Amino acid sequence: KDPGRVLVQTYNPDAEPVKRVLAHDFDGFAQQELEWRKALAYPPFARMASIRLEGEHPEQTASVARHLGNLVTKNMPPASVGVRLLGPALAPIAKIRGKTRWQLLLKGPTHVALAPLLARVEAALVDVPSAVKVVIDVDPGAML
Fold it and tell me: Which residues form the Primosomal protein N C-terminal domain (predicted)?
């Protein structure tokens, strides 16, 4: 009802979701987004957990990310359970305020399927150097 101004910042202005938003096509946007999310096993069709790392020393932060990635990989359930690990990889915004950022993303059919892996990661945090901050975020609202 009330006129307003919306600023859209994107690396890809020709992307289908951006076009639909600019055209005020909510139904088309929602339908396409849900199709993509289902095909890629993203919420609401799956559960996710993000493990984000941040540290001032790039090599140390990368090393911790690889260590946690190896820990998860070694403890993955059988493929039939449907749990997948993406990463470790540099975060989409790889550096903020001079700190290097990495992330791992766990996807699975239910929270119960992810819980044992997250418990192992949480237990391993006692050995992570204090210079590396690790945040486990179940059902993350953003992954930047």
Answer: 44-140
Instruction: Quote the strand ranges of 71-117, DSSP E.
Output: 84-96, 99-108
Token representation of residue 101? 């950022």
Q: pLDDT for 45-65, tens place per residue? A: 999 999 999 999 999 999 999
Distance of alpha carbon 105 from alpha carbon 69, whole angstroms = 10
* Distance from C-alpha of 26 to C-alpha of 28, rounded to nearest angstrom: 6
Contact 82, 106 (CB under 8 A): no
Q: What are phi and psi of 131, to 5 degrees?
A: -75, -10
Phi/psi at 110 (nearest 5 deg)? -145, 165
Do 9 and 22 meet the contact criterion of CB atoms below 8 Å apart?
no
State the residue for tokens 């090599």. Answer: 59
Total residue count of the chain as it appears in this document: 144
Give the separation between CA 50 and CA 79, rounded to whole angstroms.
Answer: 20
In order of their start, the domains of the chain are 1-40 (no CATH), 47-138 (3.30.70.600)
